[in-house]
Amino acid sequence: MTTMIDKAVECSICGEKSNHTVIRSTNSFGSPDLDTRPPEMLRSTINYQIQRCPSCGYCSTDLSECGDKTKEIVNSKEYQIIIGSGEVPKIAASFLALAYENEKQQKYSNSAWKTIHAAWVCDDENNFESSIKCRKQAVTLIEKAENHGQKIADQAGASEAITLDLMRRSGMHQEALELSAAMKAEDIEEIIMQMIKYEKELIAKEDIAAHTIAEALGEK
Prior knowledge:
By secondary structure, the protein is mainly alpha-helical. It is 48% helix and 10% strand. The protein contains nine helices and four strands; from the N terminus they run ββββααααααααα. α6 (158-169) runs parallel beside α8 (190-204). The protein starts with a strand and ends with a helix.
Protein backbone atom coordinates (compact mmCIF):
# COMPACT_ATOMS: atom_id res chain seq x y z
CA MET A 1 0.00 0.00 0.00
CA THR A 2 1.18 3.50 -0.85
CA THR A 3 0.52 6.33 1.59
CA MET A 4 0.82 9.95 0.45
CA ILE A 5 0.08 13.36 1.93
CA ASP A 6 -0.28 16.86 0.50
CA LYS A 7 2.33 19.25 1.81
CA ALA A 8 3.10 22.94 1.32
CA VAL A 9 6.76 23.32 0.34
CA GLU A 10 8.70 26.58 0.22
CA CYS A 11 11.01 26.88 -2.76
CA SER A 12 14.61 27.39 -1.65
CA ILE A 13 15.30 29.40 -4.82
CA CYS A 14 12.50 31.97 -4.95
CA GLY A 15 10.64 31.49 -1.66
CA GLU A 16 7.32 30.65 -3.33
CA LYS A 17 5.16 28.14 -1.46
CA SER A 18 3.34 25.45 -3.40
CA ASN A 19 1.45 22.24 -2.61
CA HIS A 20 2.97 18.88 -3.50
CA THR A 21 2.02 15.27 -2.93
CA VAL A 22 4.70 13.57 -0.82
CA ILE A 23 5.16 9.82 -0.52
CA ARG A 24 5.16 8.69 3.10
CA SER A 25 5.40 4.97 2.48
CA THR A 26 5.07 2.44 -0.33
CA ASN A 27 6.03 -1.10 -1.25
CA SER A 28 6.79 -3.25 -4.25
CA PHE A 29 5.99 -6.81 -5.26
CA GLY A 30 7.61 -8.63 -8.12
CA SER A 31 10.79 -8.24 -10.11
CA PRO A 32 12.46 -4.99 -11.18
CA ASP A 33 13.16 -4.38 -14.85
CA LEU A 34 16.68 -4.99 -16.14
CA ASP A 35 17.36 -1.25 -15.83
CA THR A 36 16.28 -1.54 -12.15
CA ARG A 37 12.90 0.14 -12.56
CA PRO A 38 10.90 -1.19 -9.58
CA PRO A 39 7.62 -3.11 -9.84
CA GLU A 40 4.30 -1.88 -8.49
CA MET A 41 3.29 -0.15 -6.26
CA LEU A 42 6.52 1.83 -6.06
CA ARG A 43 6.57 1.98 -9.84
CA SER A 44 3.47 4.17 -9.99
CA THR A 45 4.83 6.77 -7.57
CA ILE A 46 7.34 8.18 -10.09
CA ASN A 47 5.25 11.31 -10.73
CA TYR A 48 5.55 12.19 -7.04
CA GLN A 49 9.30 11.62 -6.80
CA ILE A 50 10.06 15.10 -8.14
CA GLN A 51 8.71 18.58 -7.41
CA ARG A 52 8.63 21.67 -9.62
CA CYS A 53 8.22 25.21 -8.35
CA PRO A 54 5.38 26.87 -10.32
CA SER A 55 7.07 30.25 -9.92
CA CYS A 56 10.74 29.86 -10.90
CA GLY A 57 10.68 26.35 -12.37
CA TYR A 58 13.17 24.83 -9.93
CA CYS A 59 12.92 21.03 -10.05
CA SER A 60 14.06 18.86 -7.16
CA THR A 61 13.17 15.86 -5.07
CA ASP A 62 12.69 18.45 -2.31
CA LEU A 63 12.19 22.10 -3.27
CA SER A 64 13.11 23.24 0.23
CA GLU A 65 16.74 22.27 -0.42
CA CYS A 66 19.28 23.44 -3.00
CA GLY A 67 23.01 23.53 -3.68
CA ASP A 68 25.38 26.51 -3.71
CA LYS A 69 25.15 27.12 -7.46
CA THR A 70 21.60 25.90 -8.00
CA LYS A 71 19.96 29.32 -8.37
CA GLU A 72 22.40 30.34 -11.09
CA ILE A 73 21.74 27.08 -12.95
CA VAL A 74 17.95 27.34 -12.61
CA ASN A 75 17.98 30.89 -13.98
CA SER A 76 20.12 29.90 -16.97
CA LYS A 77 18.67 29.87 -20.47
CA GLU A 78 19.57 26.20 -20.91
CA TYR A 79 17.66 25.14 -17.79
CA GLN A 80 14.58 27.14 -18.72
CA ILE A 81 14.56 25.60 -22.20
CA ILE A 82 14.54 22.12 -20.64
CA ILE A 83 11.57 22.78 -18.34
CA GLY A 84 9.71 24.51 -21.15
CA SER A 85 10.17 21.67 -23.62
CA GLY A 86 6.99 20.37 -25.17
CA GLU A 87 8.73 17.34 -26.67
CA VAL A 88 8.61 15.32 -23.44
CA PRO A 89 5.99 14.91 -20.70
CA LYS A 90 6.17 17.61 -18.01
CA ILE A 91 7.35 15.17 -15.33
CA ALA A 92 10.09 13.90 -17.64
CA ALA A 93 11.17 17.49 -18.31
CA SER A 94 11.40 18.04 -14.55
CA PHE A 95 13.68 15.01 -14.17
CA LEU A 96 15.79 16.21 -17.11
CA ALA A 97 16.08 19.66 -15.54
CA LEU A 98 17.33 18.11 -12.29
CA ALA A 99 19.69 15.94 -14.34
CA TYR A 100 21.05 19.08 -16.00
CA GLU A 101 21.63 20.74 -12.62
CA ASN A 102 23.40 17.61 -11.34
CA GLU A 103 25.58 17.50 -14.44
CA LYS A 104 26.56 21.16 -14.14
CA GLN A 105 27.60 20.44 -10.55
CA GLN A 106 29.60 17.42 -11.78
CA LYS A 107 27.29 14.94 -10.06
CA TYR A 108 27.30 12.73 -13.13
CA SER A 109 26.03 9.57 -11.44
CA ASN A 110 22.98 11.41 -10.05
CA SER A 111 22.45 13.04 -13.42
CA ALA A 112 22.44 9.67 -15.17
CA TRP A 113 19.82 8.27 -12.79
CA LYS A 114 17.53 11.28 -13.17
CA THR A 115 17.79 10.92 -16.95
CA ILE A 116 16.86 7.24 -16.63
CA HIS A 117 13.83 8.29 -14.57
CA ALA A 118 12.87 10.66 -17.38
CA ALA A 119 13.03 7.71 -19.80
CA TRP A 120 10.66 5.73 -17.56
CA VAL A 121 8.15 8.59 -17.60
CA CYS A 122 8.38 8.73 -21.39
CA ASP A 123 7.79 4.95 -21.50
CA ASP A 124 4.59 5.37 -19.50
CA GLU A 125 3.39 8.08 -21.89
CA ASN A 126 4.25 5.92 -24.95
CA ASN A 127 6.65 8.65 -26.06
CA PHE A 128 9.18 6.16 -27.39
CA GLU A 129 11.26 8.61 -29.40
CA SER A 130 11.94 10.68 -26.29
CA SER A 131 12.57 7.62 -24.15
CA ILE A 132 15.28 6.55 -26.61
CA LYS A 133 16.87 10.01 -26.48
CA CYS A 134 16.84 9.91 -22.67
CA ARG A 135 18.49 6.50 -22.60
CA LYS A 136 21.20 7.56 -25.02
CA GLN A 137 21.81 10.65 -22.89
CA ALA A 138 22.03 8.43 -19.79
CA VAL A 139 24.67 6.25 -21.49
CA THR A 140 26.79 9.36 -22.12
CA LEU A 141 26.35 10.51 -18.52
CA ILE A 142 27.36 7.09 -17.18
CA GLU A 143 30.56 7.34 -19.22
CA LYS A 144 31.18 10.80 -17.75
CA ALA A 145 30.55 9.46 -14.27
CA GLU A 146 33.07 6.67 -14.75
CA ASN A 147 35.64 9.11 -16.14
CA HIS A 148 35.27 11.12 -12.91
CA GLY A 149 35.49 8.12 -10.59
CA GLN A 150 31.74 7.98 -9.95
CA LYS A 151 29.63 4.81 -10.03
CA ILE A 152 25.94 4.38 -10.74
CA ALA A 153 26.00 1.01 -8.93
CA ASP A 154 28.35 -0.51 -6.37
CA GLN A 155 28.16 -4.19 -7.32
CA ALA A 156 30.83 -5.30 -9.82
CA GLY A 157 29.38 -5.41 -13.32
CA ALA A 158 26.06 -3.81 -12.32
CA SER A 159 26.84 -0.47 -13.95
CA GLU A 160 27.75 -2.23 -17.19
CA ALA A 161 24.62 -4.41 -17.03
CA ILE A 162 22.42 -1.34 -16.66
CA THR A 163 24.28 0.38 -19.49
CA LEU A 164 23.74 -2.68 -21.70
CA ASP A 165 19.99 -2.46 -21.12
CA LEU A 166 19.96 1.27 -21.88
CA MET A 167 21.85 0.60 -25.11
CA ARG A 168 19.62 -2.32 -26.12
CA ARG A 169 16.38 -0.45 -25.50
CA SER A 170 17.62 2.54 -27.50
CA GLY A 171 18.73 0.39 -30.44
CA MET A 172 22.47 0.71 -29.78
CA HIS A 173 22.96 -3.01 -30.38
CA GLN A 174 26.50 -2.93 -31.76
CA GLU A 175 27.70 -0.73 -28.90
CA ALA A 176 26.03 -3.10 -26.43
CA LEU A 177 27.76 -6.15 -27.94
CA GLU A 178 31.12 -4.38 -27.80
CA LEU A 179 30.59 -3.49 -24.13
CA SER A 180 29.56 -7.03 -23.20
CA ALA A 181 32.60 -8.47 -25.00
CA ALA A 182 34.93 -6.22 -23.01
CA MET A 183 33.62 -7.36 -19.62
CA LYS A 184 35.69 -9.80 -17.57
CA ALA A 185 33.49 -12.63 -16.31
CA GLU A 186 35.80 -13.61 -13.45
CA ASP A 187 35.22 -10.25 -11.74
CA ILE A 188 31.42 -10.41 -11.88
CA GLU A 189 28.93 -12.29 -9.71
CA GLU A 190 26.85 -15.05 -11.29
CA ILE A 191 23.54 -13.16 -11.09
CA ILE A 192 24.98 -10.23 -13.04
CA MET A 193 26.49 -12.57 -15.62
CA GLN A 194 23.07 -14.18 -16.12
CA MET A 195 21.59 -10.76 -16.77
CA ILE A 196 24.34 -9.98 -19.29
CA LYS A 197 23.83 -13.33 -21.04
CA TYR A 198 20.11 -12.61 -21.29
CA GLU A 199 20.82 -9.13 -22.66
CA LYS A 200 22.94 -10.72 -25.42
CA GLU A 201 20.04 -13.03 -26.33
CA LEU A 202 17.67 -10.06 -26.52
CA ILE A 203 20.14 -8.05 -28.61
CA ALA A 204 20.47 -10.94 -31.06
CA LYS A 205 16.69 -10.76 -31.55
CA GLU A 206 16.83 -6.94 -31.81
CA ASP A 207 14.38 -6.89 -28.91
CA ILE A 208 14.05 -3.36 -27.50
CA ALA A 209 11.18 -4.06 -25.08
CA ALA A 210 11.31 -3.91 -21.28
CA HIS A 211 12.23 -7.17 -19.56
CA THR A 212 12.69 -8.08 -15.92
CA ILE A 213 15.54 -9.47 -13.85
CA ALA A 214 13.33 -12.48 -13.06
CA GLU A 215 13.15 -13.28 -16.79
CA ALA A 216 16.94 -13.12 -17.01
CA LEU A 217 17.21 -15.60 -14.13
CA GLY A 218 14.65 -17.94 -15.68
CA GLU A 219 12.05 -17.31 -12.99
CA LYS A 220 8.32 -17.10 -13.63
